[in-house]
């Protein structure tokens, strides 16, 4: 970090050196976050954000520097979620969303930008789910629409198929929160079908097995909650 900071300070106009320094702050922040040192992690991520903001504001800024800025906002949002600051997290995720909307508008065929946008909608849904279930549902549905489009482009893309499974499950969670068990069941079953297909491709994958088991547990819990209650004597 000290070497990159010195190099960046010696040539402030060098975009590469500035991005390297920003990346160093991000790596240190990630390690600190993993250790649970959230305040220190937030400090590093904000230092990275400051650099990303300067680079994105330059006349020669590229889509890559804009994406860097959106990712910096996301990292700060993630830390603020962990610090139980949903208001701050929401602001960070909205800042990221605004950038990603512009990137998609400028290049509608870029699948990477679209996936980033779906991630932003998911993050917003995650923040809203406890306080505004209907708002969360809207965000999850926007993300799901993007994931559906991407998954249809390439049925062999495992990452996009997994995103689609998560999208359906997130919508299901929001429908449970809005007291729509029938809709939630439909969403969970759509996710289940995808997860079962993925697991068949790689039965030894422990992550997919855990995700499949968790989804089946949600469906089972939903069914139990809908059973008629027995009347007492």
Distance from N terminus to C terminus (CA atoms, Å) equals 72 Å
Q: What share of the residues lie within helices? A: over 70%
Fourth CATH level, the homologous superfamily of the largest domain: Tetratricopeptide repeat domain
Name given to the CATH architecture of the largest domain = Alpha Horseshoe
Could you name the ranges where pLDDT drops below 50 across 5 or more consecutive residues? Answer: 228-233
CATH class of the largest domain: Mainly Alpha
- Could you tell me the mean pLDDT? 92
Please count the beta strands (DSSP E, at least 2 residues each). 0
Here the CATH topology of the largest domain equals Serine Threonine Protein Phosphatase 5, Tetratricopeptide repeat
- Assign the structural class, choosing from mainly alpha, mainly beta, alpha/beta, alpha+beta, or little secondary structure: mainly alpha
List the domain count as a whole number.
2
Characteristics:
single chain; 2 domains; Serine Threonine Protein Phosphatase 5, Tetratricopeptide repeat; 0% strand; elongated; mainly alpha; 233 residues; disordered C terminus; 82% helix
What does this entry look like structurally?
It is a single chain. The protein has 233 residues and is mostly helical. The chain folds into two domains: 108 residues, Serine Threonine Protein Phosphatase 5, Tetratricopeptide repeat (Alpha Horseshoe), CATH 1.25.40.10; 101 residues, Serine Threonine Protein Phosphatase 5, Tetratricopeptide repeat, CATH 1.25.40. Helix 1 packs antiparallel against helix 2 and helix 8 packs antiparallel against helix 9. The protein starts with a helix and ends in an 8-residue tail after the last helix. 37% of the residues are buried. The C terminus is likely disordered.
